[in-house]
Amino acid sequence: MILDTLSDQQKDAVVKDGNVLLTACPGSGKTRVIIHKLAYALKNIDVNSKQRIVALTFTVRASEEIYRRLNAMGINSNRVWSGTLHSFCLEWIIKPYSCYLPELENGYLIADETYASDIISELKEMHKLKPIDPINFRFNRDGTFAEPKTIQKRVLKDYHERLQTEKLIDFELLLYYSYKLLTKHPKIKKTLSNIFSLICVDEYQDTQDLLYAIISSIVTTGEGSSNLFLVGDTDQAIYASLGGIAKSLEEIQEELNTLPIEQLTLSGNYRSTQRIIDFYSIFQTNPIKIEAIGTNKDVDSIITYNNTIDKGYLVDEIGRLIEHSLDNGIPEDEICVLVPQWWLITTITKQLRAKLPDVNFDASGLAPMSKNRNNIWYKLSRLFLTQPQPKIYSLRYKWCSEVIENFKEHTNTEFSEQYQTERNVLKLINSITSNETEGIDYLNDCFDQFLEAVGIDQTIYAQLLINRKTFFDVIKSRLEDPTFQVPSDIASFMSFYREMSGVVINTCVGVKGEEFETVIAYGLLNGYIPHWNDIFTGDPVAASKKLLYVICSRAKTNLHLISETGRQTKKGNPLEITPELQNLNFEFDEI
User: Is 331 annotated as a binding residue?
Assistant: First the structure.
């Protein structure tokens, strides 16, 4: 039954024993394969054993989607642990074994990202660096800084001394300490390899070197009792600036020592027409022949490219393209406008809403609290800003579990006896009401009522207060920033967590893994795509090819590309067309 709806390639990947590297082209049903792989593996776990399987994802959203799909299939997911790679290290390595590291034996807390960013900004100014000067925060396997520049290293030294003083660890320390624990205490690796019979890694091409080391050390220690299932596409490796490395089969084999690994491929595309596929295949760096096998494979596609329109008329052109899709029966939520930089989302959304007042737009990526996903108060806010509905009950239950655990870590104490289970805490949260109409006031009121009920006096826990202040400082700064123009009322705050419908406006990074009938992408200019960072410090050709590949492969049927004129650098020089588009020989359509 688990295999009934799968293609032959998908079935082969699901039933394959041992270690597998699965190269999955866009639209090939990658997530579907992972879900069925998990379901298939669950069948082979002895119900009396303590074995589990793990699905590691690049984003929290992707991990939550795995639970949703398993539950929709009627699969009991109690033996599945799904989360981000960093969360895995925290939950399964740092938390249970931190006492074995001198750096952590006296306690620790995960540094709030915004708080850490503020420290870095302060140190940059102290060391005469510009705010935009990049710093590589990653560690090498031997514990040295990956950052090569002297001044940046001094900033990092001061930064980590500050973290150590405050007993904080950031995401990079989280990875390094996890690797250090596994290296110095092999019994931990052995324990984990006995627990996890299967480790699935989604979007493996975006994995950092330390994470390859952590995962492979667990698998190799198991000597075959723990299998690795890597899924991804090297042509969609767009996180190199964040340390993502798309390792080759040979490099992964080297990580696994003598353990064999087999490479499989998903080359069938259920998403796009063959014409769309043939177009974005131009930007491939890994020459895999992709074949359209969906019901729309032979549908007529429209692919346009406009490199003459001035930015002053950009909104008119995008509005015209949206109306053309709507007139042809395409639903609003099947249309996506991709912006080259996140800070452009607000402006283009406001202009399009004014241009097309009868059209709904979904720019939910602009939530004012979006930078604080690992802050304990952000996690609590999700529960107060979402309505209790059956279809998200399991998600809210999971969030509630995280809140209970995080408060225990921050306070080293338990909630009052009545509220030590997820079910009772959820009942409490659902019962709390507030008459406040402004988002910040509403959350503050709800937080205070919650703390009083569970018996936590936040005033005696410095880190709780710091994180709460940071959480609200970020919201206030975004509400006051004219770049964002985010509404401040509680109804708008709640809308950020609702399933929104309308024309989606986001970045290509924000919609990775998504698909739409019509994709409209503008700002295809050198400096945006590829970004200046890639132009000056990376491989600009590879970066722009991969970004264009991701952008174009989101489209099912219609693709509209725009390299507008009139944009300039800070020095007043005009931005030029992304070279990979400027030199393209392709017969585009006109509408």
Answer: no
The closest alpha carbon to 520, from 324, 254, 327, 371, belongs to 324
Q: Does 30 appear as a known binding residue?
A: yes
Whether 229 has a pLDDT exceeding 60, the answer reads: yes
Q: How much is the average pLDDT of 371-394?
A: 84
pLDDT digits (tens, 9 = 90+) for 178-200: 999 999 999 999 999 999 999 99
How many angstroms separate the CA atoms of 252 and 560, rounded? 37
* Residue 491 annotated as binding site: no
Helix orientation angle between 60-72 and 30-43, rounded to the nearest 10 degrees:
60
pLDDT digits (tens, 9 = 90+) for 568-578: 988 889 999 99
End-to-end CA distance of the chain: 46
Instruction: Give the residue carrying structure tokens 């904080």.
Output: 168
Give the DSSP letter of residue 386.
S
- Whole-number pLDDT of residue 61: 75
- Tens digits of residue pLDDT in 323-372: 999 999 999 999 999 999 887 888 898 899 999 999 988 876 567 776 66
Q: Residue 567: what pLDDT?
A: 94
Instruction: Judge contact between 359 and 337, C-beta under 8 A.
Output: no
Of 368, 465, 452, nearest to 166 by C-alpha is: 465
Alpha carbons 93 and 524: distance in angstroms, whole number: 42
Is 31 labelled as part of a ligand binding site?
Answer: yes
Bridge partners (DSSP) of residue 199 are 54, 228
- Are residues 442 and 472 in contact, defined by beta-carbon separation less than 8 angstroms? no
pLDDT of residue 371: 62
pLDDT confidence of residue 14: 95
- The residues, any chain, with a CB within 8 Å of residue 172's CB and separated by 6 or more, are 137, 138, 139
Residues 6+ apart with CB under 8 A from 587: none
484-482-490 Cα angle (round to 5): 55
**C-alpha Rg value of the chain to the nearest Å:** 24
Contact 541, 579 (CB under 8 A): yes
Q: Are 560 and 566 in contact (CB under 8 A)?
A: no
Q: Token digits for 533? A: 């960072």
Answer whether 215's CB lies under 8 Å from 221's CB.
no
Contact 121, 131 (CB under 8 A): yes
Per-residue pLDDT of 63-110, as tens digits, reads: 888 888 888 888 888 899 999 999 999 999 999 999 999 999 988 888
CA distance 34 to 55: 8
Whole-angstrom Cα distance, residue 369 to residue 471?
7
CB 538 within 8 A of CB 370: no
Per DSSP (E only), the strands in 313-468 are 335-339, 361-362
For residue 46, CA distances in Å to 79, 191, 225, 309, 492 come to: 11, 17, 14, 63, 48
Average pLDDT over the chain, rounded to an integer: 91
Counting beta carbons within 10 angstroms of the beta carbon of residue 506, is it exposed (0 to 12), middle (13 to 18) or buried (19 or more)? buried
Is 55 annotated in a binding site? The answer is no
Query: Residue 28, annotated ligand binder?
Result: yes
**CA distance linking residue 337 with residue 472, whole number of Å:** 30
The whole-angstrom separation of Cα 440 and Cα 576 is: 43
Q: Which two tokens stand for residue 214?
A: 């952590």
